[in-house]
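User: My collaborator sent over this chain with a note saying "see what the structure looks like." That's all I know about it. Can you take a look?
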Amino acid sequence: MPETFATVDLFAGPGGLSEGFHGFRTRNGHAPFEMGLSVEMDKAACDTLRLRNFLRCFGDEFPPAYYQLLAGGEEPDWANRWPAEWKRAQETTLQLELKSEGSEEIIDPLLDSLRERHHGNTILLGGPPCQAYSLVGRARNRGKPDYVPERDHRHYLYEEYLRILERLRPAVFVMENVKGFLSSTVNGTRIFHRVLEDLHGICRTGDGYRLLAIGSAERNALFHDASPSQPQDFLVRTEEHGLPQARHRVFIIGIREDLMPAGRPDVLELPRRKASSLRHVLSSMPRLRSGLSRNDDLRLWLETVMQALEGLSRMDLPFENEEMITRFRALARKLTKELCILPRTSTEPAGVANDCPQDLAEWITDDNLPCLPNHETRGHMPSDLQRYLFVILFGQITGRSPKDRDFPDLLAPAHRNWKSGKFADRFRVQLWDRPSTTITSHISKDGHYFIHPDPLQCRSLTVREAARLQTFPDNYLFRGNRTQQYVQVGNAVPPYLARLLAEAIHGLLSER
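Assistant: Without extra context I'll predict from the sequence alone. Here is the result:
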């Protein structure tokens, strides 16, 4: 009987890492990874996790009642209709703030039970919250007069991950974090180096671990006589592995010494693939208009966008040459004749572009879906709609998103740092034929960094569009209000990337 490994997902968010591991199937259809435990402190994310853990009990065939819910139907009483499956979801979803007072007494017995039931066949997933490590988070922290890095407990949440690693002694562990994790310092010491030192201490005790570099087969020769130790050994650039997003993340992965195939270099191979683009995953989705932040209705929206386009067609533009100005104004005038009636909420299903890579298309889409969940637009101020139109048209003409210096004076926002260079790309359009920029939780604030490339929709990305760029399957429902949904999507590990990691890790475990 094929081996099965139970996953423990710490700081799980909405479950991106778990989704990738549980969605992986071997060639004969075996699911080698099953849900052991998801741990998350945020209630909305836990609600998302619990429902997904419930659905995983049904394999690849979700109950019809779930699709009826996504179509706008009433939510069933899951516990009464499917008591065994709902109980399993409750048991595998734990809302808990790790490293808080009393948290060890709650989680440690669960970990011990999992280890014993699965005879050590467990996989530890997760990554400490990234606000203390990310470049944006560090910039915000420096602006706080009373901020002291040494007192920020988020710098040390990795210690709880390591404590659990020592207790669980899994077959494999995967620790994920933002790229800024590599350069974040406390008292002049880089957190990354401190983590590696602590990991090496664990690796040398009991059942030791081998740390693995992330790379392609070409890198194998580099590690025949050495172990990975440099920051670049652990960096993954998602666009190099077929994802429609440029997301650079750190993955520290270790395999227990007794499970490492003899003679293998310390590399986890992730094959390189051509990057997917925004067009591959967003162009076939239902077109939706933005809303107005006040007094929204279709007629007023059409008038507002029409006036914005007419203003752009007459505006003084700081472009490089007259030809660009002429093209921009002609495009703005053309769009005034193409404005059409669009809804704000999706009521139909959607596929992907015909040339979307097949593996990615099959991962994202679900033929049973009656419509796309979490695909509803938000409202924007009229002045921002005009800025969005400018940014979108600028991108179409130049092939890039404008910086602050490219904006006409009439479109400059009333922002004291507008010309400081700190927010040079405060308004950023995502371009059709490239991977998106990194989807972050900041998308929950205003959407200015995540403007849709279609000027006739004139808006920021919806939760579902951000989720597609993050490679969540379309049938993945995010709970909570819209702001909470955006935060969940922005903080997640892309599930398709996690699936690639799961495939590589399973291949390594199968070699022994």
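A starting point for your reply to your collaborator: Confidence is low (pLDDT under 50) at residues 134-144, 147-154.
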